Predict the 3D structure of the following.
Amino acid sequence: MMRAWTLPTLLLVCGSLAVAALFARGAPAAATALLLVFVLLAALHSPLAFPRSLGAVEAQRRSEADGRPIVYWRAGCKYCLRLRFRLGRDARRLHWVDIWSDPAGTATVRAANGGDETVPTVVVAGRPHVNPDPEWLRGQLTPST
């Protein structure tokens, strides 16, 4: 779980150092704006930007029951972030598995991608799709989900 927070933590530390330097130079307005930018970047690259993750086993069980796709992702992945935001509210209709916090999820992604941890990997009806188009994925959602 710590790996998921490494990039956001580094962004906050670097941002804090830059903000402190700007304050020391007497530029509080610029420092405040820079702090907001770094906080936003840290939040976007953290697990907070994604729906609550499930374990891979639980996600597979739920997917079999309700037919919803499973998205395997990791924090800091720009393609995962792109998928999440382009899906908008529909992202909550999917089952999300953070491969850095779930070893079974990591194993599933590696099995689907020839040993690589390529994300986002989306499993729809038992078939893996690597970095699918968000519009295509939205079309895979049933109206009742």
